[in-house]
Structure formats: C-alpha cells, structure tokens
Amino acid sequence: MTARVTMRDVAKTVGVSSMTVSRALRDDETVSADTRARVQQVANELGYVYDTTALAFRTQKSGFVAVTLPSINNANFAETYRAMSNALADSGIQILLGATNYRIEREETLIRQLLARNPEALVMTGGFHTEATRELIQARGLPVIEIWDLPSEPLGHVVGFSNAKAMETIVAHLAHSGRRKLAFVGASEGGDLRGAERRAGAIAAAEKFGLEPMDVLDAGPAPVSMRHGAALAAKFGRDLLAYDAIVCVSDPVAFGVLNQCRRFGIDVPEQLAVTGFGNFEIAAVCEPRITTVDVDARQIGETTATMLAEIFEGRPTPRTEKVSVTLVAGETS
Amino acid sequence: MTARVTMRDVAKTVGVSSMTVSRALRDDETVSADTRARVQQVANELGYVYDTTALAFRTQKSGFVAVTLPSINNANFAETYRAMSNALADSGIQILLGATNYRIEREETLIRQLLARNPEALVMTGGFHTEATRELIQARGLPVIEIWDLPSEPLGHVVGFSNAKAMETIVAHLAHSGRRKLAFVGASEGGDLRGAERRAGAIAAAEKFGLEPMDVLDAGPAPVSMRHGAALAAKFGRDLLAYDAIVCVSDPVAFGVLNQCRRFGIDVPEQLAVTGFGNFEIAAVCEPRITTVDVDARQIGETTATMLAEIFEGRPTPRTEKVSVTLVAGETS
DNA sequence: TTGAAAGCGTTACCAC
DNA sequence: GTGGTAACGCTTTCAA
Fold first, then answer.
1. Which residues of chain B have pLDDT under 50?
2. What pLDDT shows up at residue A156?
3. Which of the listed CATH numbers 1.20.58.760, 3.90.1300.10, 3.40.50.2300, 3.50.50.60 matches domain A163-294?
4. Looking at CA atoms only, how far is residue B118 from chain A in angstroms?
5. Which residues of B touch A101 (CB under 8 A)?
6. Distance (Å) from the alpha carbon of B211 to chain A's nearest alpha carbon
7. Which nucleotides of chain D does any protein CB come within 7 A of?
8. Separation of B3 CA and D7 C1' (Å)
9. Which CATH superfamily is domain A59-161+297-324 in?
10. Are B98 and B67 in contact (CB under 8 A)?
11. What is the mean pLDDT of chain B?
C-alpha cells in the first residue's frame, strides 16, 4: 500500500502551491485555464483521490444527515427513508442511518454515535426521547426534524401527524357503523411510542363517542407483527366475540388477527370488525381487505428533504408540517 | 449555535491537559482512577461528544463499512443488515448504507458515492455488477464481501448461497409429489438478479427432473411483491389450472397468487401447488401456510460481521462462506 | 501518571 | 493569478 497522493504531491510536480491545486481541482475561475488543465492532468496521472475526510474535518461540514428509524424492516418507514434519500441524492448529502429497534434507551446510544460523525442535521422518527437525549441534542444546537409524530414539545422542526387523532378516525368509523364494545391490540407498554399514542387515542375516542370502555389486549413487546396478532387471537379464540371490533395497532397485526378469525369460524365483518393502521400492502391484497388508515409515508420523506434543503440554504421553512392521514374503508368493518 | 465542546474544553475545566482527557475517555489504565472519573463526569456535564471526523482524519481510518442492499424494505435484507450492525456496534465501525433499488446502473453511482467516504470495506448484496463497478472497486484495492449470492467470479470474499440450487430444492419437492407442469412467477428480465438466478435454477431443475418445460409468467419490473402476484393471478384466473404448480420468486408474490386462487375457487394444494421463497413472516402466518425456502438471513449478517473483524485484524486470503438453505414444507404443495 | 509538540490533508483568509 | 499561514480535533511519540 503506497502512501496516499496528496495535493502537495500534485503541487510539487506541477510546480505550484497546494492552494492553487486546491482551487484548480474545484475548477475555480480565478486560476488560469492553463494551470487548471495542467493540475488536473497531473492529478490524474498521479492517481490523486480527493480526501473527503480532510474536507469534512477542515470545513466542519460532514455532508451527513443522521436519521433514526425504529426499524428498517417496516414498509412505512422504509418508504419515508427511500423518498428522503432520493430527494437528497443530488445535493451531495448522505444519510447516516440508525435503527433504535423500538427501544428508547437504545435511541440515546445511537444518537451519541451518530452525533460523533458531525451530522449537519438530525432527523428522528418519533417525538418522545429521554431527557438525556434531549439535552444532548440541544447542547449541539443542530437542526432537528422529528417525523411521524406531533410532539407536544418539539425539539425543532416537525413533519408528522397525530397518531392519536388518526386513530380517532378509525374509532369514529366503527362507532358510526354501530360497534359498541372495542378492544385494542398492540405492543406492551414501553417500546413502541407511536403505538402507545394510537392506543391512547383509541381509548379517548371510544369515550368521546360514548362507546363502552375499551379493553387493551397485549400482543407482546414491540415490534409486534403478523405472528403476534395471530398468537393473541389464537389465545382468545371465539372469546373475541365478546367484542364488536378489534382495533389493531398496525395492518400486519390486523392480518394476523383476521386469519385466526377465519380458523375459528368468526365472520368478519358480520360478527366482528377488524381494523389496522398504516395502509400496508397487505391491507389491500388480503381478503377481506383491511380497513385501515393511510399515512403518506413518501410525503413525509419528501417534505423532510425539502425542509433540510431550506435549512441548509438558510431559507425560511415552516416549523411544523402536518401530513394528511385518510381513512381507507376496507371490507373488515 | 454554540461552539462544539472539544477535549480541550473538558481539559480546561478539569485542569489537566487534553492528552489526559483523551486517555481518560478511552479508559486508559495509565490515567489515575480519580482523574478518569473526574474527566468522564465533566465530559458528561459539558455534553462532550467525541469527534469521529477528527479521529478518522488523524488515524486515516474512516471507521466506515459501506453496505449496499437492493431494497431496505425487505424482511430478509433488513434482517441481514440488523444482524450485521448489531455485531459491528461494539467495534466502533459504522455502516454507510445504500439502496440500489434493484437497478444495476444505480449500483455504480451508489458505490461511487460510498467510496468517496473512504470506507474500510465494502459489502455488496449480490454478485453481479457492471464492468465499471468492478474496475472501480478493484482499483481501490479495498476488501470486498459479496453476500446473498455465489458469484462465479467473486471480487473478494463471499457469504452466500446459490439461488439457483435453492430453487432446485423447491422443484425437486414438487416433482416428488407428482407435479409435472410448472410455471415460474417473478420480475421481468433485468432488475432483480437473484430473482433471475432463481428463475434459471427452476427452469434447469424442471429439465433435470424430467418435468415439462417451465413457463415463465412476468409479474412486472422489480421489485415484485404481493400486489404483483395478485394482479398476475387475477389476469390468468382459472387458466392457472393449466399448471400443476406456480413457483414464485418470493413469499409475498406467492401470497398474492394464493389469495387470488381462493377468489377463483382454485383449491390449493389439491388442484394447484403454490410455492414461495425466503421464509417471510407471511409464509407461516397465512392460511394455508406457504411452502418456501428458508435462508438464514441473520447468519449472513453475522458471518459477514465476523469476516469484517478478521479482515481488519489482518488480511486473510479471500474466502467463501456458504450459508445453509432449507426447504420449509407448508400446506400449499 | 501526565504533558508538549507535531502532524494527518484540506481550505479560509489575507498578502502580494 | 498565486502563495503563505493557520487552523479544524484528535492521537502518536517522546519527554518529564
């Protein structure tokens, strides 16, 4: 492994200073065309490679945006990430991704690791953080965008929606079609905070619409998915008929519940309604189609990218952007 | 925007030199326990965050490993990523992730961007690359691991399996249970190269086992998922009964097909077998359970991480680690 | 057990 | 048009 070729090496060969090389390589007009051409040629010949690390160090600009997601394996979050990274691709900004695995303590460690890379902004999924995390971020004074939530005390910018309110549209829909006794199926307390908000929103909505008090059925620690919904429904069996509707924290959970209903000969939606959240692909493909809430995950990603661009350019940008959330009436309610 | 807290700031506050801070933060035994404790406490109070950019600059090691995935929203790849990043978490190595969106031209741009960050190694999902990509990588002389494939001309290390052979186990299973006329459902030519290998493997296996020549049904450009399987099956309707078995490129596609079969009154597996690939969660949760192939995605991630650790500690000669692949007999065959 | 000095490769700033 | 100098935050090396 030969020593790295630096600007100084190029400079010596050409017979100019390294400053001139630096300028020439950036195609700075103040360098004469001749010199520029010679420098660029010699750089090529010597196999010069630009050192991004040195640039980042010198300018104190890493070219990174740190992004946290609860999980990488979630169609909604993945879509937000995809949209954001597409929109950022041309700007030369790269995304430094970290997954919290739905653990708020993990978020703190993660953010510490991400901050060590000097990101120019921080995008966090979710609006709940430990006090230490909040302090860490505020001490840095770097731009922050919280997404997929509407935090009561935002750390900075927000691109999201109220999970509680979104759940209210589901409950309203069920109340409207005469369902009185609802149960909520989601993860245990603690891990999934957007899930917890949905639960709280559902319970509050049931009260608001004068339904019977809502039961909460625990499907296990986050993340909960198809198999957890299925396992929970299997445990209850036909006892699920004690309810008029099973309100699930997400579509995969709803799918799991739904499948077990078939096994136990429970007629959905005649005897029991089942609802999901997130408008995952499965909601539209499975039979019967699941009633759910569509969140425009792509728009969250794109809006976040736009906001980042505006922040970097010093242009004014709204503090909070709400994204639309719409009820998707399926065949399970 | 307050100025960043550096080791010098911590040093001043504690009343020691920044060298001592540097050592104390690394828990260097040569620093007295007292001093270490004080330094660490003050660092916390001041909200000190380690500057990895400076470290990378000073040591000329970026601390990055670049990883490419076809898509972030795929349970299998996500699991590999999760396992890899967990295993790497303690080593101080961070992952720089890029998604190719199943486009081989995109891979080239992506790798160029990733290489600009001076990664210490490159992990690529898949063993097919453009000639330019291959040259780019070889010119760099950095360690490479190709995963989820068994490339004929590896660029370096390999952690994977033969997609073609894996598909053969499915076809063998179908042949064994008397299915003679098979159709393959997958993405159009071009994008999904592991999918293409599975298709080729299935066709070759059908010939090998003396079955009728296999038809290929095009579900559209990659990535194909539930809805594409469903749309294709909807187009065919009961004409699917021209086949004894529908061999799908993945479980989600198989699920889409399966659901349509129910709609058209096709009895699976009596009249028609349907198989998937990848042992996704849905394969075990849906009814009937999908016959599939389990690939140990987690093991791929862990083995890759181990290999990376070995590479960083010395440079072993490139080698290939095969991961196990097992048939999961479900109720659709 | 602790500290001082040097330097990693680049660019901002100021001279000329 | 071009060059000299200093600095970004850290660790290696040597000295005390």
1. 1
2. 96
3. 3.40.50.2300
4. 8
5. 82
6. 32
7. 1-5, 7-13
8. 15
9. Response regulator (3.40.50.2300)
10. yes
11. 93
